[in-house]
Structure formats: C-alpha cells, structure tokens
Amino acid sequence: MSTGAAETDTQAENVAAAANISPSSMQNTLKEKLQAEYTSIEDLSGGCGQAFNAIIVSPQFEKKNTLARHRLVNSALKAEIAAIHAWTPKCFTPDEWQRKQSEAGA
User: Fold this and answer.
1) Element of type H or E holding 52
2) How far apart are CA 56 and CA 53, in angstroms?
3) Which of 5, 28, 93, 104 could lock onto 82 through a cystine, CB 3.0 to 4.6 A?
4) Rg of the chain, C-alpha, whole Å
5) pLDDT at 10
6) Which one, of 16, 11, 85, 91, lies nearest residue 52 by Cα?
7) Is residue 29 a contact partner of residue 77, using CB atoms and an 8 Å limit?
8) How far is Cα 36 from Cα 4, in angstroms, rounded to an integer?
9) Looking at 4-8, 27-31, 63-67, 77-81, which range is the least confident one?
10) Cα 34 to Cα 15: distance, rounded to the nearest angstrom
11) Is residue 61 within 8 Å of 50, Cβ to Cβ?
C-alpha cells in the first residue's frame, strides 16, 4: 500500500524535480505558512534535492516543545517532505535565535 511518499531514491528525485522543490521554494512556503522571520535551508545532497538541513525561526514556535514545532513545519511542508529523502529542521523562536546568535558571537 502506497503512502504517497517516494519509496526509492529515484522516485524521490523524480517527484522532487517534477514538484520543483528547492531551498528557496521551501523558504517561501515557511515564510507564508509559519510567518518565519528567518530561514536557512541547505541542500546536503549535492544538488539533487534529496537531503536538507534547515534552520527556521518563527514566532509560532513560542510555548511549543520540539515535537510540536517539528509537526508545524512538517505540516507546512507536507508535499515537499514526501518527495525528499532526508529532512532535518532546527526550530527556534525569535528570542531563542537571538540568544543563540549572541552566544555564537561572544
């Protein structure tokens, strides 16, 4: 029984290409659906669009634990995630992100 997700890397590549999935398209979706203030999405697959790391900063993450944040992101990017092989989001509130940036600069 098919879940709609790609079952092989080749299927995933074909779906991703057909759906025109790119870091910029995912960033646009996150900004629109989650009011993300900052996004950084890195293609780790050498350009074939199959593995992504993401940093997402959104006020919608306030008072939510990590699981709830990931569920929000996965819901916003449901079609895109179904078409790719690996997805690793890191979710921060604006205050958390500001503290993290301050710590990195210190």
Assistant:
1) strand 51-57
2) 10
3) 5
4) 15
5) 64
6) 85
7) yes
8) 27
9) 4-8
10) 24
11) no
Question: Which tens digit of pLDDT belongs to each residue from 13-67?
Answer: 565 555 578 899 999 999 999 999 999 999 888 877 788 999 999 999 999 999 9
Letter for the amino acid at 4? G
| Three-state DSSP string of 16-44 | HHHHCCCHHHHHHHHHHHHCCCEEEEEEC
- How many Å separate Cα 103 from the centre of its chain? 24
Through-space distance between the first and last CA atoms of the chain, rounded to whole angstroms: 52
How far is the C-alpha of 70 from the C-alpha of 97, rounded, in Å? 16
Half-sphere exposure of 87 (CA within 13 A, CB side): 22
Q: How far apart are CA 52 and CA 54, in angstroms?
A: 6
The DSSP 8-state label assigned to residue 54 in this structure reads E
- pTM given for the model: 0.79
If you search the block for the tokens 């991703």, which residue do you land on?
16
Tokens 């997805």 locate to 87
Residue pair 52/84 in contact (Cβ under 8 Å)? The answer is yes
